[in-house]
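Ticket #4471: structure export looks truncated?
Reporter: QA, pipeline team
Priority: medium

Steps to reproduce: submit the single chain below to the structure queue and open the exported record.
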Amino acid sequence: MTDNPIFAVAARAQALRAQGVDVITLAAGEPQAATSAMVVEAAVGAVRDPATHHYGTAQGDPALRALVAAAVTDGTQLPWSADDVQVALGAKHALFLATQALIDAGDEVLVAAPGWPGHAEVVTAAGGVAVPVPTDDQFRISAEALDNRRTPRTRAVIFSSPGNPTGAVHPEPRLRQIADWAQRHRVWVISDDIYQAFDYTGTYRSILRAAPQLRARTIVVGGVSKEHAMTGWRVGWLAAPPEIIASARLHVSRTITHVPTVNQRAALAALGDTGTPVEAARDYRRRRALLVEALNGIAGIDCPLPDGGMFAFPDVTGLLRDRGWAGSTELAAWLLDIAHLAVVPGEAFNAPGRIRVCFAVDDETLSTAIGRLQTALGPTAHETTVRQTEEAR
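Actual output as written to the record:
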């Protein structure tokens, strides 16, 4: 059994740092920023409160669940209550709870390809079979592609918009088509909304806002990890119909008992902080443009501007061909060893010939990283054109 390849890159980068190498990581699936001081102070206050020193409820703190329900209500334009929410140890745990509630051994769950490997991993952990579904040239899934992979054992589809690593945001007409397909074939939709705050096109919509009729067969997953730079705090949730919440609550009760109370208090404070996600999205939009422009300036790289998320996902097949690398895994290893820059190879996402590059870092880090890329992979496309022109003379 192999670990998540993204973790493998992070481990290699950490090993180099331990040897004294100055490694810049654009491989992480998290913001570089620290958790806000307001959230930290709320956690400190929770530690000092004796009420947090004892057992809590398996379903999660009622106040936190109420805030989550309000946020999901706002996003879907459908009513949700605290009873409809289960708190989990991060969004990945929430995805597992959703999957294990739905499937029996051997049942199939459709996942996007390219897509985040964690979606397939939670299906496998729950005893199911993850079936990759090819996306279109804008990295969006379609009802037709889903139907081509559907079998009698298809139980659910995990759907993410904006996507990781692609940043793809699905427009409302496409969402309605997917919803109609799911309704027609009685397939559940697990909507992974962890990147919803980072939409740079203004076109993001919850699938339930586009297709409210799917409410009884949809599970909405979210968390504070990305929006509030709280990946290490491990607080996520799922909002779902009663039978799914009952299953998830029972699983939590029998395994982890409940999510740590202090962490839930921190998440409660985060959900009251509307400024941090807005500020982060503004900064990410600007850094996205800088990174994509720099990548497109390197000969052999073609980088689309992502609609959302925290990553650029360039096509590097021209670069691989010109430099003689066998694949993007070899390129990523070379960048780490030679340029001391960590990126994730596309093979991790079912997308050989691409790399994932995170722009959720500060300006200085991004500027230095871009400089290393240009130095290591130059000449730029412009310099190549000039040289070819001069040679033609």
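Status: closed, not a bug. The export was complete when the record was re-opened. Leaving a note from the reviewer for reference: The first helix runs from residue 5 to 18.
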